[in-house]
Write a structure and sequence with these properties.
Layout (H helix, E strand, L loop, with lengths): L1 H16 L7 H9 L3 H25 L4 H27 L1
Length: about 90
Amino acid sequence: MFLRFTLALCLLAAPIFCQRDFLTAAEVDQIRLIQEPNERLLLYLSFAKQRVELISQAVAQAKPGASKFVHDLLEDYTKIIEAMDTVSDDALR
């Protein structure tokens, strides 16, 4: 019984460890340097625009495997928008 529980727990936890970062290391460094909420929002906005441009380029080129790349970029974009929402909420407190 314990073995089954442990196995089930490992299978459920596996996706958590496989999540990739939505920002590059350089972008994370830039965010760490900027503490002012409005400036941070502008920085996140520039990252979001970069993702949109990359999506446009990937769709225009229509290379094999582009759908996975576009999917990942859309996930990144969504997480960037969520980060912007968090910054906005925190600034209002």
